[in-house]
């Protein structure tokens, strides 16, 4: 099993990002995704900074992937995407079909990110023909769904032509909107957001009126209210999953990476009673299935 | 500019035709479309009757097959495409790469529109679907501002369709899993958002409560209008403040933007609401027909009549309407 660090989904100051990747460089992560995937106004690091960071990490033996924005609206955002796609040697994670278009035009391989809608072996087959190397399963799908897709891929004779990655730890990206919910939570219009996301390094928690944790507001992205955690499900991933993704939080992510490795065969399970894992078990995502 | 109206039943379809729809869109009676609700949609005999009725009246039939095929249900999506074609659909509205591929390869002459569920919001994505599957039209998600809609219209040769009126989905469609996070079922996997089977109403000492899979979505005082607990429209708490953290219960109404939409060459305006009653379809179609005709006659002096907006508000969610993301300030 390989482990990846997903792109940082939150808006952190530049020095915090750099500090995180200095530690990530020393960690046991096999694959590191980086880049801004949520909001084009978050420019603590510019495109050239991300590219420089990517090359530095690659120099340390990490497999590096540049992740691209999920919701592309303005022409300027497509232009930035184009500059990522033109970078030369670094693999790209496409989180919008627009990225697949720009990459496949150049005959470049790509990772199909979790925001690409691929729900069957037939869609996956099409992505493969377009240059997909690795498929990150949409977060709402289950182990059962994955197994059916991979059986279908066996029948199509394409099972060995791509890798499978699963989002295994962190707050799930669940939705993207035109509206900035963090700005709204501070009573600001999006155009005068003052980049307020930078004040919430793990997003802003939203509860029901009964205090139940429901969602995390992260700019235009809405995340799960509970941390998704598949650490106790790793043993059931063998022969299905090649890469497990941990989505960076402001603390402890790299400690969790080591715990994941230790429990790869189920020998060192963790208590995760505040977390959720429902999607993997074909039930409501917010639920927690216990063995 | 085409007026495209929804129908979940034959009576609704007839009302749409009677009030001046240019085309009507419907779904089949299964999870191949994103309004998979009990008692709704078309099958077998009713499907061919719907097609015949529309064609006799010189109108077009669009069939939405806009969910994502399941790994063990591929035949169902293929069958939906075949059935739609066999029964005389003029256009299919599709979202899934595999379903697009199948329809494009099997029926090369068939007119394909890209569903809003495919979430194409930029020129690169639009080019992708046009080049890969020869789609003739793209339905734009309700996340773009009017400025962005105009930019896209300038940059693409593909026809564009926008949502004009109806329930306001505030997330990029086809990329929202909030419903499955709470219930296990989402538009993409089950063809419905906030499914009715998970809804519960309860009168309590603190007010009328609406719940979705036991999660409290909202609590209403006696003077407040209670709305369906679509999960993004509840009142939640963020650090001590209780408010509509994502969106108020409101409907989209773009009557004010009609001249701009017409001027930038939008090919069709779509009315949301296949799950709504024939009376809703009748009312909304009538008003939009009048508005489009008035605007086409003299767009420079177009002003939505107060009676039109009142008529639309009367059938709106929460009895209020919004320009949604088209209006930058909403964002």
TrEMBL record, chain A:
Q: Which residues bind [4Fe-4S] cluster?
A: 39, 180, 193, 197
Print the keywords alphabetically.
Answer: 4Fe-4S, Iron, Iron-sulfur, Metal-binding, Ubiquinone biosynthesis
Lineage top rank: taxon: Bacteria
InterPro entries recorded? Peptidase_U32 (IPR001539), RNA/ubiquinone_mod_enzymes (IPR051454), UbiV (IPR043693)
Give the required cofactors: [4Fe-4S] cluster
User: Does the keyword Iron feature in the UniProt annotation?
Assistant: yes
Q: In which pathway does it act?
A: Cofactor biosynthesis; ubiquinone biosynthesis
Q: How does the record describe its quaternary structure?
A: Forms a heterodimer with UbiU.
Function field: Required for O(2)-independent ubiquinone (coenzyme Q) biosynthesis. Together with UbiU, is essential for the C6-hydroxylation reaction in the oxygen-independent ubiquinone biosynthesis pathway.
Question: Mind telling me which PANTHER family this protein's record contains?
Answer: PEPTIDASE U32 FAMILY, UBIQUINONE BIOSYNTHESIS PROTEIN UBIV
Q: Tell me its family.
A: Belongs to the peptidase U32 family. UbiV subfamily.
- Record's protein name: Ubiquinone biosynthesis protein UbiV
Species, as recorded:
Lacimicrobium alkaliphilum
Taxonomy of origin reads: Bacteria, Pseudomonadati, Pseudomonadota, Gammaproteobacteria, Alteromonadales
Q: Which gene encodes it?
A: yhbV
From TrEMBL, chain B:
Q: Which cofactor does it need?
A: [4Fe-4S] cluster
Q: What is one GO biological process annotated to this record?
A: proteolysis
PI-PLC Y-box domain segment(s): 298-321
Single Gene Ontology MF annotation: peptidase activity
Per the entry, what this protein does is: Required for O(2)-independent ubiquinone (coenzyme Q) biosynthesis. Together with UbiV, is essential for the C6-hydroxylation reaction in the oxygen-independent ubiquinone biosynthesis pathway.
Which pathway does it take part in? Cofactor biosynthesis; ubiquinone biosynthesis
Instruction: Name the UniProt key words of this record, in alphabetical order.
Output: 4Fe-4S, Hydrolase, Iron, Iron-sulfur, Metal-binding, Protease, Ubiquinone biosynthesis
InterPro entries from the entry? Peptidase_U32 (IPR001539), PLipase_C_Pinositol-sp_Y (IPR001711), RNA/ubiquinone_mod_enzymes (IPR051454), UbiU (IPR043692)
- What is the official name of this protein in its record? Ubiquinone biosynthesis protein UbiU
- Quaternary form? Forms a heterodimer with UbiV.
Family per record: Belongs to the peptidase U32 family. UbiU subfamily.
Give the organism the record lists. Answer: Lacimicrobium alkaliphilum
Positions annotated to bind [4Fe-4S] cluster: 169, 176, 193, 232
**Pfam families registered for this protein in UniProt:** Peptidase_U32
